[in-house]
Amino acid sequence: MSDETTAADVQPEAEQAQTEQPDTDQPETEPPLGRRGRPFDRKAPFMVGLLGGFGLLTAYAASRIFLSLGGTLVLIVVSLFIAAGLDPLVRWLERRGMRRSLAVVIVIVGVVGFIALFVFALVPVIADQVRAIGSNAPDWLDRLQNNRRVRDLDEQYGFIEHLQSFVTNGNFASRVFGGVLGAGLAVLNAFFNSFIIIVLTLYFLGSFESLKKAAYSLAPGSRRERVSKLGDRIIEGIGGYVSGAFIIAVCAGLTSLILLFSIGMGRYAVALAFVVMVTDVIPMIGATIGAVIVTAICLSNSVQTAVIAAIWYVAYQQFENYVIYPRVMSRSVEIPGVLTVIAALVGASLMGVVGALLAIPTAAAVLMLVREVFVKAQDER
């Protein structure tokens, strides 16, 4: 019985082995373009040098493209920051039971209405007051010459004579911008950039959620939830900083408007208050620049008004730095004071005023990532 079973089992195996043997009588078919050779050795010196050279050329080309698109990238980044600043208002309307699409429309209409109101109501007033400041500048220089201390300094350095000839000789604005054509191109470029920022901001605000989802989808699935939470935290901080900086600047502008009307400088109040509001957005030095400009123009009216303005701005800056700023920014930007100064200096040296504006929220985002990712990873080791 066992012999029959063994023979029955061996016979199929022998047949299977016979069928698996290749038929050596049939010639192997040759590919029409020949057989592939051995692949190149990627560790060979030639291949390493060739791939390294292509890598350097690619990096150089990418850097050139990045530098050529620097202005456009700045407009995109600024628009994203403004959209992030308006997003909390959209989410506030959503929490009140409003659909996001309707909330975005309301915010967009409000922003466009505010810009239109500013253009049609305040721009003509500011332009007239700036023109009045320019026409009265020579008379203010004459008044400065009558001051004994200023006259002593002028005898040593002669700066008032050069300043007076610069203001009175020809078009002041054209000389600053390098001719009439240069001034026109500078104004046109400023309006064009402002229009691009407004349009991009509206688009980004309308598709903010879809942009976030698209960015988060690039992360691995196992880490996507954490990346989403960290990204939402960063965006929330940026939005809080932008909206907070706007609130602080509006407070500085309104208080300056009240001050200027109170001390008899109502003729230039709107223009100077707007200057203070714009410069107050710049971290660290913006408030000081606005205060110096207002105080210098008040000095042309009388020494008393200049002293009142100087005392007011010194006191207001302390109030803003220690009361208003911490209360407005405490929920959005958690960053030490020394890091704020360093970030603003680095940002200003790299990208000027725009870099100084973007440096603080960027530093806060980097610091948050270091705390949440790197430090916690080190603690778990």
Structure in words:
The protein is mostly helical. The protein has 14 helices and no strands. The longest helix has 46 residues, at 100-145. The protein is elongated, with a radius of gyration of 34 Å. The model is unreliable at 1-8 and 173-180 (pLDDT under 50).
Protein traits:
381 residues, 0% strand, mainly alpha, disordered N terminus, 14 helices
Q: Oligomerization state of this entry? A: single chain
**Average pLDDT:** 76
| Low-confidence blocks of residues | 1-8, 173-180
Written as H for each helix and E for each strand, in order along the chain, the element string is: HHHHHHHHHHHHHH
Structural class by helix and strand composition: mainly alpha
Beta percentage is under 5%
**Share of helical residues:** over 70%
Q: Find the count of extended strands (DSSP E, 2+ residues).
A: 0
Sheet with the most strands, sense and barrel status: none
* Measured distance between first and last alpha carbons: 67 Å
Shape estimate: elongated
Helix tally equals 14
Radius of gyration: 34 Å
